[in-house]
Amino acid sequence: LAEASAGDALATRTLCKIFVLLTMPLSDKCQQALEATIDPKKDKDRSETAIRTRTELRDAATKQATQLIEARFAFAERPKVLRALSRMFDGLRKARREPGEDIDVELALTLLRNLLVPLPPLEDGGARGAAALDALTKALREELVLD
User: Fold this and answer.
1) pTM recorded for the entire structure
2) What secondary structure letter does DSSP report for 97?
3) DSSP for 117-137?
4) Four-CA torsion 138, 114, 87, 18, nearest 10 degrees
5) Disulfide engineering: 30 pairs with which of 61, 82, 84, 89, CB 3.0-4.6 Å?
């Protein structure tokens, strides 16, 4: 869909907004949940409800981080989508910009930030996350998006 609507500025802007929302970085609470370690000594003093809540939060944070990794792989596998979205930077090349062009540039930069923000390591020690980031930066470089 993103490739097919590359010539339509409104469709590209809408897709970029959706991609920005789907790739939002983990919140501080999610980061803390992923970084928290299980300590059997401390867990003896906690209620079962508190342990269950912490486990549920950690599971949700793990799912969100996994979805971000999958989004990176998806963009890396479809570099033409990145190229289409890079057209949102066209406003930077003009001496006078139209009002909507500033928003386009901000959206595209936010999407790039969301895709490139470091993720905390998951159960695999961060190997899959690092592989996704490497694949994404390679695709960005090959499509000249970073230029």
Assistant:
1) 0.70
2) -
3) S-----TTTTHHHHHHHHHHH
4) 130
5) 61
